[in-house]
Amino acid sequence: LSACFLDSMATLGLAAYGYGIRYEYGIFNQKIRDGWQVEEADDWLRHGNPWEKARPEYMLPVHFYGRVEHSAAGAKWIDTQVVLALPYDTPVPGYMNNTVNTMRLWSARAPNDFNLRDFNVGDYIQAVLDRNLAENISRVLYPNDNFFEGKELRLKQEYFVVAATLQDIIRRFKASKFGSTDTVRTVFDSFPDQVAIQLNDTHPAMAIPELMRIFVDIEKLPWDKAWDLTKRTFAYTNHTVLPEALERWPVDLVEKLLPRHLQIIYEINQRHLDHIASLFPNDVDRLRRMSLIEEGGTKRINMAHLCIVGSHAVNGVAKIHSEIVKTQVFEDFAELEPEKFQNKTNGITPRRWLLLCNPGLAELIAEKIGEDYVRDLSQLTKLHEFVEDDLFIREVAKVKQENKVKFALYLEKEYKVKINPSSMFDVHVKRIHEYKRQLMNCLHIITMYNRIRRDPTKLFVPRTVIIGGKAAPGYHMAKMIIKLINAVAQVVNNDPVVGSKLKVIFLENYRVSLAEKVIPATDLSEQISTAGTEASGTGNMKFMLNGALTIGTMDGANVEMAEEAGEENLFIFGMRVEDVTELDRKGYHAHLYYDRLPELKQAVDQIRSGFFSPKEPNLFNDVINMLFHHDRFKVFADYEAYVKCQEKVSELYLNSKAWTKMVIRNIAAAGKFSSDRTIKEYARDIWHVEPSDLKIPAPNEPREGAQDKTPNGMAA
User: Fold this and answer.
1) What domains does the chain contain, in order, with CATH numbers?
2) Label partner for 506 (CA 20 to 30 A): which of 78, 427, 463, 602?
3) Region Disordered: which residues (predicted)?
4) Which pLDDT score is estimated for 706?
């Protein structure tokens, strides 16, 4: 999503920067050994990175620990440990407009006097070795998806990127001459008009108290002035509603690491609660719900509450998600300031996710409607004129078939697995998580397997089911799900009765570069999360743009995809958000579905009895126990509707022409899901900057009127 946004911001000519951490080790490489996930370090910089340029001249200090001294002059944070932030710049070129923006990633460096300046007993060697402690901050990316782990190193990473970035932004603000006669700016009144900072989830939430610290402690602004500037500068994007994913940092950890920031957070909270109390006298429960500090057990800071209070705009990432954010997760805050809450439906860049990964389809589209759609994806609606064009239908089907053959060859070469390119490619690729319900797909695979064995002569539409994704290393259930999929694949792929009718592949080490290969080759896209759990999803959009049909629930952006293409052009099934809420009210009883549905019972019994793990019959006990007794995501409740919907998928696939016409209708409706549209909405509604379609002259061309990309000179 961030990469798509950077591409769109550059393509729209916005003066925008992406800031983050230059991790030495990215998300782990996944190996499958004996059906289990094994993690390996991703040493991605081993051979160097030609796209980055270190900028030591912009190195900045970041402070940790220490204590706060109060005096008449104000608060002072002293006796801190210093880590240096070394920026590395990566160019972000816009599409054919000669604009190049910057992504600046910070790397942690120990200062040269690290551990040597303080009353050291002269262990010089140990002091140099201890430099690693400081430099560990940018060593490794935490691999959790939708899960909060309150580790000190992670909080250090979050403050590190925030502190370095804010210093950088303020340095640039002070140096800019725009609207100022001073050589160096000291007046911050225009700061929110020149600077917009978008908080990507709560991970950079410490930016709010950090900017307050700079304004109040360093620049000596009065609190109310500083708070007004801060709120007008920040906006917050929420990316998940799962409670286990929300960041809630222990107060004692923040007090140790960032003592001044804790004081500032307490002050923000006090003023916030005073305001609530003035509006709702005697409503103590509302004060408890809305506080930035959660009492009870260990005191924690609710970072989402901090972001909402400290921002002028809050948005979800799909209509249904933004509705849930407003009416459920943060309802008290939305009641207070409804105008603060917005929606910005996610998008994908058509440059990477069509032109680059699927040149055959991109060219075919260009032949029909011209090349302008690459920068204005809404033009894809013109393809509706060709839905009945027999030649175009055949060409679209041909491009898909070529992509499937190419992917089948890749699988054969890299993984030594042979698949039938004329089978339906049924693809479920995303992070492994209970809410994404890879288990439901697994139950469907077992059901198809049982049907083939029950009547091997009956017509069966051949399928290759491809499942891929990484499990967080500490997520036991997700790792068991991977093992189960591989165990089922082992049985299915080696049963002579099944033959080539059904194949199951677990795609190892799913990542962007592999997505670029598998997505253009996909027939059926699986988007089957429990309604109300997937904030948006973007894979769903990538598949739609690349000529796959979607089987999915009314969740995340699937809802808007169905709205754009017509619900009859997606395979929508299962509970809606209202049904899930109602089932929660009544109580979800898994055994009722198990007792009522013979095919579900058979599949579950096979997993339980060790049919797929004969050497270890009890291997999947934890999975079975979860499904019956604590399945928050209600796999059994949607199983029947899912299987019936899959029958409709197979039926349509038999009619190649009807299938391809539905594909064309989907591609024609995919225009809304360009990240260009998303970024235009952020720019208009939140950042208040104007996109520019000016093509900056190339370095070898004369320059005339294209001096200022953004007329009002504001940087996002």
Assistant:
1) 1-343 (3.40.50.2000), 416-672 (3.40.50.2000)
2) 602
3) 693-716
4) 45
